Amino acid sequence: MKDCSSIISGPLAHVINSSLRTGVIPLEWKTAKVTPVHKKGAISDLNNYRPISILPGMSKILESFVQE
To answer: What is the pLDDT of residues 4-19, one digit of tens each?
Structure first.
């Protein structure tokens, strides 16, 4: 994202400002990818895994603005 920041900064600012003004977050920014991570024990036992939610980077940027 740093490489293309000069290109996406304007549209990204527009989406973030619109989201803060209306209180609506883009659906794609709220969708997480869930990945199973092995804790310990037998790899074949599904109870030895825990879910990790991976959120889009853009939602983390919006969250940092809301926290301030």
So the answer is: 888 988 998 899 899 9
